[in-house]
Amino acid sequence: MKVNILLDYLSSLNDEVESLCIAVLFFSNRIFTQGSKSVMNIGFSTIIKVLSEIATLDSSQIQRIYLQHGDIGALSEYAVPKKNVVSLFQQQPLTLSSIYERLKQIADTIGSGSSKDRKNILKGLLIDSSPLEAKYLIKIINGELRIGLTEGLVEIAISKAFHQDLGYVREAMLISGDISKVVLLSKRNLLHTMLIKPLTPISYMLADVMFSAEEIINYYQKPLICEFKYDGIRAQMHKSGQQIRLFSRNLSDLTNAFPELANVAFEAKLSLSKSSESLSDIEDFILDGEVVAFQDGKPLHFQELQKRIHKKNLTEQVVAETPIIYVVFDIMYFNGESLIKKSIKERKETLSNIYFKEPIINSIYGLVNSEQEIISMFEKSKDIGHEGLVLKDTDSNYHPGKRGRYWVKLKKELDTIDAVIVIAEYGHGKRAGVLSDYTFAVKNDNNNNNSISNLRISGKAYSGLTDDEIHQITKRLKSIMIKNEGTRIIVKPEIVLEVAFDSIQKSNRHDSGFALRFPRIKSIREDKNVSHIDSLQKVKQIYEKQTYIMSKK
Ligand code: AMP
Question: Which ligand 1 atom is nearest residue 330's CA?
């Protein structure tokens, strides 16, 4: 039903290319394409400020209405008819292009002092909007369209509206991640120009992180592919006839850095049947894997690879000094056929029929279904000197450019950080009405200065607590509230969390200058108070310890 309405609408835009592109972005709950550098930088508080400025509402009225509706779009629909300002110009009806132009203007307004200008553009837009337009405009700006449409349904509507095979639409979407480009190519009957093909690199599939075998088993509750995590550089190998190319994580060409791989890639053969020994040549493929510095059955330190990559003229001596292997763990294209919509089980099956010649090898993996099996594989991986494990959902397709839970990595956990909650935000969906997102801070210096001015924000965590714990902590947080900001509250620094994380990055977003990546609450440290939290010095130490891992990817 929804798809039909959407497909009629998209068909009606057939002659308005620009509107068509904007419409599919909006319906996919986006403003800019995936990976675009443009961001709106319009926060909740700015929207509230604008609404209170154009309507005669004070902040307590706004707060009450917001809590009543729980939706900022509905709040805007309520506020806009109460406008006490009028448009300066003869009001033109809003069009998709005129809206988009002003949204782009907001995104382009950056730099110091720009927040006032962004606010004013938004204000102008809302003054020109009808209440219903304001409702959806704000939902789009806030990234919360919530009309029951997913990008998947928009893809179906595109395929029907422009008579394209849904499989092709999906594949083009996986490769480009840009729904506005996909709709344009569909309309022009040019989708085939974006299908996966050898010698054109595609974005890599990425892994999420989990912290223990127990967490993994509890989450999936089914057998998983469990593979060594090799510590090297991610590389995509493409073969097309007599050409071989190797691409890096950022899709630059690495072929010349590893000449021994190109030489043996031509010798890969396909086994025609399990029973016979006959092997045949392979016309083309795209492989995913890791180049690892490797000698005497052991991985060498990752930095050894730098010698290869940064050399302009690679000598035979350097090649001999830094032996490598290319460990293949996936295949996205094989003999004229894209495999990205096949399950990894099937892709591994294909790989198992290919014989590579060293230094190209197939990765080592097995199926696991218990904590014990994961732990013993993890130990094996560490004993050899690898980084840990990557576990893969056996039914998952290859999702270019996506980080999801189809693949999860399990590494030796970095140290945890004890930090104090300074801001708490209300959640969404199942977590509406409870404070479920916590901004936490560490101490700036190590002495016993526990004042707020000595705290530095180092991240925001929203996972790791049970629903019960969230309810309890919500009550406690409300009791120590310093300031109510609508969707979030500022609290007295009192509740201490033990936070686990994947890595630490430098960041301008927080005043500590660092951000914990993928933070997870390990526990609420009832036994600690703000004087016990960690300092920025510890954050820096961990950051430095893991720098070599961060810098290579
Ligand atoms: P990280 O760099 O810690 O985010 O971990 C993800 C990276 O691990 C990938 O980008 C690959 O470069 C690397 N990796 C090593 N072994 C595997 C494997 N078996 N499967 C997938 N990725 C792997």
Answer: 20
Cβ pair 498, 211 in contact under 8 A = no
Domains of the chain with CATH codes: 29-141 (1.10.3260.10), 206-411 (3.30.470.30), 416-552 (2.40.50.140)
List CB contacts of 15: < 8 A, sequence separation 6 or more. none
CA 56 to chain centroid, in Å, comes to 40
Q: Find the angle CA(322)-CA(326)-CA(328) to the nearest 5 degrees.
A: 165
C-beta of 230 in contact with ligand 1 (< 6 A): yes
160 lines ligand 1 (CB under 6 A): no
Structural tokens at position 176: 């480009």
Whole-number Å distance between alpha carbons of 456 and 381: 37
367 exposed, middle or buried (CB, 10 Å; 0-12, 13-18, 19+)? exposed
Atom of ligand 1 nearest to the CA of 234: 12
Residue spans of beta strands (DSSP E) within 66-149: none
- Judge if the beta carbon of residue 386 lies within 6 A of ligand 1: no
Helix, strand counts (H, E) of the chain: 20, 24
Using CA of residue 121, residue 123, residue 128, residue 133, what is the dihedral sign?
Answer: positive
Confidence of residue 239 (pLDDT cuts 50, 70, 90): very high
Q: Is 553 a catalytic residue?
A: no
Long-range contacts of 158-162 (CB under 8 A, 24+ apart): 158/10, 158/24, 158/182, 158/183, 158/186, 159/186, 160/3, 160/7, 161/7, 161/10, 161/11, 161/186, 162/10, 162/186, 162/187, 162/189
CB atoms inside a 10 Å sphere around CB 296 = 6
pTM over 0.70: no
Residue nearest to atom 12 of ligand 1 (CA): 234
Question: Does 553 sit in the ligand 1 pocket, CB within 6 Å?
Answer: yes
**What backbone phi and psi angles, to 5 degrees, belong to 26?**
-60, -45
Q: pLDDT digit string (tens) for 192-218?
A: 888 898 998 888 998 987 878 988 999
β partners of residue 338: 333
Share of the chain above pLDDT 90, in %: 54
